[in-house]
Each structure stands twice: as C-alpha cells, then as structure tokens.
Design brief:
The complex is a heterodimer of chains A (152) and B (788). Chain A is an alpha+beta fold and 152 residues long. Chain A has five helices and five strands, in the order E-E-H-E-E-E-H-H-H-H. Chain A has two domains: 2-78, Ubiquitin-like (UB roll) (Roll); 87-149, [2Fe-2S]-binding domain (DNA polymerase, domain 1), CATH 1.10.150.120. Chain A has a five-stranded mixed beta sheet, covered by helices on one side. In chain A, strand 3 (50-53) and strand 4 (56-59) form a beta hairpin. In chain A, 55% of the residues are buried. Chain B has 788 residues and is of the alpha+beta class. Chain B is 24% helix and 24% strand. In chain B, strands 3-5-1-12-9-10-11-20 form an eight-stranded mixed beta sheet. In chain B, strand 18 (480-484), helix 13 (493-505) and strand 19 form a beta-alpha-beta unit. Classes of the chains: A alpha+beta (152), B alpha+beta (788). The interface between A and B is large, with 51 and 53 residues.
C-alpha cells in the first residue's frame, strides 16, 4: 500500500508516495539519493544509519518512512553550512576520528544530538551517547576526543 | 635529515568527503538499468547436492535469471584452485552459495530465493581442525591431489591437509635431553570475524563488446582481475576492476571474496549491471572468517633461563576451502617463536579443511594466533623457573646478529624489540608488578588488579615478487597527480603516500593529489593492499617515480639554461642552479613542455614512473623452512593492566600500552590511529569474540547482537602508544609497516595480566567473566583455565 508523506530533510521539503514497508533508510538512500547515511546491518545493531528525526537520534533502518511523515530529518549531508563544516566535523578531522568513514555519519549525528542537548558533555556522557554505535577502525578514543574537544 | 612533510600530521585528503557523507562506497553506486542479486546459501555444512530446482523461482515476475553451479564449470583459487563460484556437486560449509537470483529488486530476488528447491544428501561434518587431521575424519576434498596449485604449497592428498609447512633447525631430541626444564602447553585462538562496518559489495557488468567491469569493495583489485579473467576466459585487459573507498578491510576483503560470483552473475544478463551487496548475516558465513588456530608448544630451557629448543605444532582451521588460508600456515610458523632466538626448532604447521566458512586473511595474518601461544608460554616458563618475566624475555630476545626461525640474520636497522619491552615496562610503572601475585586496590577486597606484557614481531607475508607501481604526472600548475594501485580502506594510505610524494618532489603536500580510487585500467599494478606493506612498497615505488620526475625536470631545465643537469637542484617547486639559486625555473613552466623565447619546445611533458619489487626474497626450503621469504620485521611490545571483579568475574582493562618500532613515522596521528584501532580489534578477540557453531556446523552467532565486538563502553580507560623509530634501510624515509601490528600482542598481554591478577592461566580465547569465575572456583580444566 502507498502512502503520501511530507518530510523536511536537511531543510528541504520533500513529498513522496512511499510503500508502507519502505524504511526511512531506504527512503533517504534510494528515493532521495542521500547515500551519506550508511547501511551497516539493517537491524539497528551498528548505528551507521543514525539520523536525527525531529532532533532525536534514530536508527533509520528501524523506522518506516511513513513514521517520519510531518517531521524534520537531519542527515550527514545537512551538517555543514555550505563550505563551512560543523564544529563536530572539524573536530573529527582534527583528532583523527575518521578512518574508513563508514560509521562516521552515524557517529556525527549521535554526537550532534548529544551536544545540542548538553553543550559541555563529559566522557561518560559521550560514551553513553555513542552506545550501540560500532566502529571497527579507530578504537573510539579519537572519536571521544573529537566530541569532547569540539569548539562550541 | 630535515623533513618538510614526513613526520607531520598532514590532513587526510579523504577527510572532508567522509565527514560530509560525500565519500562514495560501492553500495552507493547506481548504474543505469541496474539489477539486483541475492544468494541462496547452503543450510548444510557438508552434503552432496542431489537436486537444485530453480524452475519456480525463474517463473516469478521480475526475475531476470536464476543461476546454479551447473552453469560455471571452472574452478578458481589463487594458490590452490579448490572452489567454484557456486557449489557444484558438493557443499562444504553452511553459507556456501548454491544458487543466485538476479531480479529487478532485492525484494523480488529474496522472494524468488524461497522458491528454489534444494535436496541434499548430508555427509558427516568436521568442524575442529584437530579432528580433521585424524585418519578417518570426514574427507572434504576427495580430489585434492589433482587441484592446480602454485609452487611451495604442500598438500597431502587423501587427507584434509591442504598445506603442511615445516621448520627444522638444529637437533631437537638431544636438546630436550639436556634441558633443565621443559614446559608443555596447548593454546587456542578461535575463529573470529573481521566485522568491517561496510558490508561486502560488488557490481558487475558485461558490456556488449565483451568487456567485464567489476566495481568492488576489494582490497585486491588486481587479484580480482586475475581471478575473474581466468574464471571467465577473458584476457586481463578486458576485465576492469574499480575500487572506490572501502569501509574497512582487515584482510577480509583481500584476495577475492564475492567478486568471482558477481562476475559470473553478470554473464547471465549481458549488458546489465548486477549488484550484489551482502546482508550483515551473510558477511559472517558467506565471506571469509579469521584466525582459528590450535597450538602446542613444548619448550626446553636451561637453568640460566635460555630457551635452547622448542617443538611447535600448529593446526589451523582452513574451513571449506583452503586457498585463502594457505599462506597463513607458513606465516604463522615463521613467527611462531615470537621475537626470540631459539637455536633448535621443530615446527609443523598444518592447514586443515573443515566444514566452517573458509578462513582468510585477518589483521595480523597468523601472528596474533601464534603470539597468544608463545607469549603466554614465555610467561609461564619464567614463572615456573622463578625468573622475572621481563628478564627472561631479554635473555632470549632477537636482535642484531641473531637469527630467527627461518635462519635470517637480524641487522641493526631491523628494529629494537628490547627497547620496546623496556618502554612498556617503564610505562606500566616499574618492575614491581611482576613480583608475585596481583593486588587489590585499597578498600576493595573483591577486586584484583594485575599487569602483563607481551613482545611481538611481524613480517609481511607476501609473494617473493610482490609488485608495486606508481605514476606521477606533473601538472601545468607545478603540482603532481600520483596514481597507485593501493586501496584506501581507512588506514590513510593516500595521506601517507601523498606525504612521501610531496617530500620526494620537494612540493608542499597540498600540491600533491593521490588519485583516490583504483581502476585497474589506469592505475599501476599493485599486488594487493595487505600485509602492512603499502607504505613500504608503494612508498618505494613513489620515491622512484619522483626521482624520475626530478631527473626529467633537471634535463629540461639544463637544456633551457644551457647547463648540465648535474649542476641543478630541486626545491620548493623549482629547479635552480646550485651555484646561483636565483637562476631557476618553476615546475609549472617545465611540466608540460617548456618553450624557448622563439617558441621552440625544450622538453616533453613530465611523467614519472616507479616500480618496486622486494629484492632477494626466496622460497623457504620445503624440508627445513630455512630461506629468505620475509622482507622486513616490525617489532614491538604491548602491556596491559587489568582489574577483575572477583564476585562477577568482570574484566576491566585499565590500561593498554604499545611500544612499536615501525621505523620512521610518516604521519603520527594516522600511525597512532592504526595502532589503537588494531589494539581495540584484538581486545575484542581477547574478551568477547568467537564464532560458534552447532554440531551440524550451522553458525550460531552471525549477527552483531550475538557476536559482540567492542563498543565505546569497552575501551581501556587509558591507552598509550610509544613509537621507537629505528629507520628501516629498505623503507621510504626509513618507514616500516604498522597497520596490523597493534593486534599481535594484546591477547597475551591481557592473558598475562590476568594470570598476574588471579593466579590462573587461561589458554583459550576469549576470556569471559564466566571463565574467570570457573577458574576461581577451580572448575576450569582443559584449555579453559588452570589455577597455579
């Protein structure tokens, strides 16, 4: 069955007919072509597909596109302002928190949700916010450092 | 030597793309008219295929083709041609591809898979290599003797042994007679999975002109080209392999994995691109797994604490197809002693076919496996003999003038493992912790702490003629474009190689671009991006290409100035007269052909070429293993401090220290990231990770909830990386490999720290809270744990 949805993605409004089983991840990647959001497992186990849905981090592989109807979505493509990177993006680069880059979009959005809610987090807050986000390259330390050090 | 770029934290050229979501991975590619493939995998670990009926699947709307093994009769394999892209008469592991559907969408393909009927005649299953080696074990490959294979592979037809590698040095029996003490133990490093965040993906298309293109998440585009061209009977020039960014490899995307199948599928729908991207579950049982080694060490020691002889038996789980694991057998054997000189040795390493998914390369390639055994063994020997474990290691340590298990003599520039040990011991707070048992922190009687170290060495395991190339094109603005065949999978290779090129070309690093993908049609040949050898080998090729560029520039400038090229120097993007530096020409004037005042051309465009092959490597002797197969070694030491809750058994790693002599460090930020990432991966192997099978050989934990890898909450509270920089004679600017090495010493360092804390020896990984509790209750036994 098809449903009409209207969502704002990275400040741009999209209207689309989507089937009821289409996930938000598939909608973003396949319908809108926003492939910055990654599919690592499809089961909500790795965190790579995390986006912000009305400001809250969600696993877009576990959310249906129809559930996002009427809401605002932020993906990694919407973090920078033109050429100006978001301070978290800058901090990830500076601290060496990016290796293969596959977990990076999800990590960045989880981090953004954290610092939006709590501008001055400590290490415990950071670890908690990144709970369920897997990275196999960095050993996480550089990611912690980037979030703790990012300029506010 | 004063460096301008080497040793700096130059930013990653791929960084901005990766933080903005613009970086393209295989699964992000969309081709016109692209079709989607899904694979039906065997639900049996060992069976004859009686019937595969695809007629109902073929009839489903949206299905373009359904293919089975009947269609593809050629076997493939890099070292032993022992497998087919789709099973033919037999399946040898649960997860092996039996049929594949190509359809208009993944959903339709998935529906069609359910309509395929397969009948199996089950055969007895063998999952443990120690069982598989016994006479009478279920035989996986009846035709092993007739398989084509490369030189140096020693299979035993009529058994499950696909490779037997031997090392023989000195006189073992007599050595054990005169030993004052003998220690005999067994160890297990179970099979694990790499768990790259990016699932394996490949898109293949056969053009109407008969050219095949494969876009792949591969670490080994040229191996894929070779394998696919042989499999399909196409000239190598008609097979093009393109690799964009790879989302983590760790060896599990090296050699070939899904590409032969993807290429075969493309031939079923000529003209259409076929996309095969694995689901997370399929990565576990449908690609390659890692490790899976049992080791028995029997060590002869003198009263003075000298190791005089060692007998080592290594039994490697190769899984259903041994081709991927052949060289792990030899690599593990070559480093099985760890970084010690042992004059008398008998090492037998066997690779065994079993009914698990095939074992492939996995960050460390045999080295973490044997170091788990040998560095636990060293600790136990020292303890039993009442010698300080640091002192015991240093008495036997490998160093200049001493020879390793292969008979290779170490030189000064090979690195300082002794120094790495001292640095780690110093950092873990002095020698105090090695004396006696661990201690409880004040006021917490139910908690014990302990410390331990493990020294390590690793050589790249590679063909004696592993080749690398580099092409440098000088551009009209005086900058350079560098093409290499190495893959960027997170390690930062394009950053490090760009720094090497910039230093060699005397250019600022911003003026050098390394082409950020590999395309076998335009990129120079590269063996594959494995073995921590890229900085070393491709870096050397870049040095040669850069020298070629500078030579061409000097000849051109010499002609323009009317002087000999020997009178010229290069620096800051200019060629200038040594005696009068103001007389200069910028690269930009020379790059595409400088002209004289009358318009006549002085020179041709500048394109530098560099090719590298390691010199002097030879096959090891088949009877003794002695020879020169290893090009260089990276030595190091790791140390851990652990805390154990005696009530729950919970293990917390308080501190993890690595000292590594990787020669000159090209980029400290990236180097540190490599070491810490590797250590985190090994932390998973030490405390959580193990693939589990049912008795029938079905993998039980093929998801990220059932197979836990370290998460943010599992990281050590404190980490330290110390670089000891003994420049490598054969490396670019003195660099050696370091990508894998952080994995090697972590398991034994933690195992030794736990022994120190608890008075219990653990012999099998992973070491879980349940193991700790069992050990404390004296209920360990076998390989699990024993108290002392």
């Amino acid at each position: 069955m098809k449903h009409q949805i209207r969502v704002k993605v990275n400040a741009e409004t999209h209207e689309a007919q989507v089937s009821s089983e289409l996930t938000l991840l598939e909608f973003l990647r396949d319908t809108l072509g926003l492939t910055g959001t990654k599919m690592g497992c499809g089961n909500g186990e790795c965190g790579a597909c995390t986006v912000l849905l009305s400001g809250a981090p969600v696993r877009s592989c576990l959310i249906l596109a129809v559930e996002a109807d009427g809401q605002e979505i932020l993906t990694v493509e919407g973090l920078a302002r033109g050429d100006r990177l978001h301070p978290l993006q800058e901090a990830f680069l500076e601290k060496g928190a990016v290796q293969c880059g596959f977990c990076t979009p999800g990590m960045l959005l989880a981090a953004k949700a954290l610092v939006d809610r709590q501008p001055d987090p400590d290490l415990k807050d950071v670890k908690e916010a990144l709970g369920g986000h897997l990275c196999r390259c960095t050993g996480y330390e550089s990611i912690f450092e980037a979030i703790l050090a990012h300029p506010r | 030597m004063n460096f301008k770029v080497i040793g700096t934290e130059a930013p990653r050229p791929d960084g901005r793309e990766k933080v903005t979501g613009a970086a393209v991975f295989v699964a992000d590619l969309r081709m016109p008219g692209m079709l989607h493939a899904r694979v039906l995998r065997s639900g049996q670990a060992h069976a004859r295929l009686r019937r595969v009926d695809v007629s109902r699947a073929q009839a489903l709307d949206g299905v373009k083709a359904v293919v089975t093994g009947a269609r593809f009769q050629r076997p493939f394999g890099i070292c032993i041609t022992d497998q087919f892209p789709l099973a033919r008469d037999k399946v040898r592991f649960a997860g092996e591809p039996v049929a594949a559907v190509i359809a208009v969408s993944e959903q339709v393909a998935d529906e069609a898979l359910k309509l395929i009927e397969v009948e199996y005649d089950p055969l007895p299953v063998v999952l443990d290599p120690r069982e598989a080696i016994r006479p009478g074990a279920p035989l996986l490959h009846e035709d092993l003797g007739s398989y084509a294979r490369v030189a140096g592979i020693n299979p035993c037809p009529g058994t499950n042994i696909f490779h037997h590698f031997k090392i023989r040095r000195g006189e073992l029996e007599e050595t054990f007679h005169r030993a004052d003490h003998v220690v005999d133990r067994e160890y297990e490093f179970p099979s694990v999975h790499h768990v790259q965040l990016e699932p394996h993906g490949a898109i293949a298309r056969l053009s109407p002109g008969g050219d095949l293109t494969v876009w792949s998440s591969s670490q080994a585009p040229f191996v894929v080209r070779h394998t696919v061209s042989r499999l399909l009977g196409l000239p190598a020039s008609k097979v093009r392999v393109v690799v964009p960014y790879v989302g983590g490899g760790f060896g599990g995307k090296s050699d070939v994995t899904i590409e032969p199948l993807a290429a075969c599928l493309a031939t079923a729908v000529p003209g259409r691109a076929v996309r095969l991207v694995l689901a997370r579950e399929e990565m576990f049982d449908g690609t390659v797994i890692g490790r899976g080694l049992y080791a028995r060490y029997r060590t002869a020691v003198t009263r003075e604490g000298r190791i005089i002889g060692e007998e080592i038996l290594l039994t490697l789980n190769g899984g259903g197809y041994g081709d991927y694991a052949v060289n792990i057998v030899g690599g593990a054997a070559a480093s099985a002693t760890g970084p010690y000189e042992i004059p008398n040795l008998k090492i037998d390493a066997y690779g065994l076919y079993t009914n698990t998914p095939p074992t492939g390369a996995c960050r460390g390639y045999g080295h973490p496996e044997v170091h788990w055994a040998c560095e636990r063994q060293r600790e136990i020997i020292a303890r039993e003999m009442g010698i300080d474990p640091v002192e015991f290691r240093l008495r036997n340590i490998l160093g200049p003038g001493k020879s390793n298990a292969l008979g290779q003599i170490m030189e000064e520039d090979h690195g300082r493992v002794d120094l790495c040990i001292r640095k780690v011991v110093e950092d873990l707070a002095g020698p105090r912790y090695f004396a006696g048992r661990g201690h409880g922190p004040g006021g917490r009687p139910a908690v014990r702490r302990g410390k331990g170290i493990a020294a390590f060495m690793k050589a790249p395991v590679m063909p004696t003629n592993a080749q690398s190339g580099a092409i440098i094109r000088l551009n009209e603005d005086g900058g350079a474009t560098v093409s290499v065949g190495a893959v960027e999978m997170g390690q930062g290779t394009y950053t490090a190689l760009g720094q090497i090129a910039a230093e060699a070309l005397r250019l600022p690093v911003e003026m050098v671009r390394v082409v950020p993908f590999v395309d076998t049609e335009v990129s120079p040949y590269e063996w594959q991006t494995v073995a921590s050898h890229t900085t070393w080998a491709v870096g050397n090729a870049i040095l040669m290409a850069a020298a070629d560029v500078l030579d061409q520039l000097k000849v051109a400038a010499g002609a323009a100035f009317g002087v000999s090229p020997e009178e010229l120097e290069a620096g800051e993007g200019k060629i200038f007269l040594r005696e009068a530096p103001v007389v200069s020409l910028p690269y930009s004037r020379l790059a595409l052909g400088c002209t004289r005042s009358d318009g006549s051309a002085v020179n041709r465009p500048v394109i530098g070429r560099g090719t590298f092959v390691p010199s002097g490597l030879t096959y090891p002797d088949p009877e003794t293993g002695q020879g020169n197969p290893a090009a260089d070694w990276t030595f190091g030491c790791q140390g851990a401090e652990v805390e154990v809750d005696l009530r729950t058994g919970e293990i917390t790693v308080l501190k993890l220290v690595t000292a590594i002599d990787a020669g000159r460090i090209i980029n400290p930020l990236l180097a540190r990231g490599q070491v810490l990432g590797a250590a985190a991966q090994a932390l998973g192997s030490t405390l959580f990770e193990k693939l589990i099978y049912s008795e029938a050989g079905i993998m039980r934990n093929r998801s990220l909830t059932d197979y836990k890898i370290p998460g943010p909450e599992d990281m050590p509270l404190q980490t330290r990386v110390i670089f000891v920089e003994t420049p490598e004679k054969t490396g670019p600017y003195g660099a050696r490999g370091l990508g894998e090495h952080g994995t090697v010493g972590v398991p034994p360092a933690i195992g030794n720290a736990l022994a120190n804390a608890l008075g219990a020896d653990f012999y099998a990984l992973p070491i879980t809270a349940a193991d700790v509790i069992r050990a404390l209750k004296g209920k360990g036994g076998g390989l699990r744990a024993q108290t002392f």
